[in-house]
Amino acid sequence: MQGKNDTQPKTHSKAHPVLKAFVCGSLSGTCSTLLFQPLDLVKTRLQTLQNTQPGGAKVGMLHVFITVVRTEKLFGLWKGVSPSFVRCIPGVGIYFSTFHSLKQYFFEQRAPRAYELVLLGAAARCVAGISMLPFTVIKTRFESGRYNYSSVCGALKSVCETEGPRALYSGLTATLLRDAPFSGIYVMIYSQSKRTLPHDLGSSALTPLLNFSCGVFAGILASVVTQPADVVKTHMQVNPTRYCTTRHALHLIYTEHGVRGFFRGAVPRSLRRTLMAAMAWTVYEQLMALMGLKS
């Protein structure tokens, strides 16, 4: 009887782990989205600039930042934050809960190997990316400054009426080519980096800072590798009539801007993706630890 009673609290603490992972992921996504939205806006504006003739003056991140503040005021840097919230809060929750479910299902008895971490991260990101793609399209258009949408609901209605529901999934291939490799590479490098830390440091008060540092290192590498796919995705979602397919978009970008065109907006994107992913994972793991779950 005593042994049976002893097992009850443990069973209760493991109730609804996927829901807890979703909540932890959503909270981490809220923090990171609010903080780093300006970098995402600047990245989108850089990638969709039209006045980029050969020999012309180069436009950098700082110039775009100052221009937005001058013409749209300081809060203009947070344009598109509404669809970002609608996309990231449930999207990050879906990502982390899917990741947690897959990890617990396939690797409950052992730690996943490096290539298995890549597959876990990529699979979780594909689920979240496909689920939230319509809001990603709306977010990108908000940030581009070319559309005068008044709200997320109004934008969804406008796109469905004028371009058809299929437009909400424009850039799907490019999005998956960007997000799946990014997440796979990130999770693998992040996890492997944490494993190299001394055990006594990994369980100290410095744990959040060390995790964040590992996340920054992983984010930089993953961002550079997936930058070309991000440029293609942005063009296809902002102007789907011109950049109608991934192959056509690749051809147009290369013809008009050369190889460098695939790395426009790389600095603000790398900063945002790196810091956002590092913060999201750090907050997620700390919250999961507080809830008594292994992330």
UniProtKB/TrEMBL annotation:
Its UniProt entry gives the catalysed reaction(s) as: glycine(in) = glycine(out)
Instruction: Spell out the subcellular localization from the entry.
Output: Membrane; Mitochondrion inner membrane
Name of this chain's protein: Mitochondrial glycine transporter
Q: Which residues form the signal peptide?
A: none
PANTHER family, alphabetically? MITOCHONDRIAL GLYCINE TRANSPORTER
Annotated gene: slc25a38b
Q: Keyword ATP-binding, does the record have it?
A: no
Q: How does it sit in the membrane?
A: Multi-pass membrane protein
Kindly list the biological process annotations in GO that this record carries.
erythrocyte differentiation; glycine import into mitochondrion; hemoglobin biosynthetic process
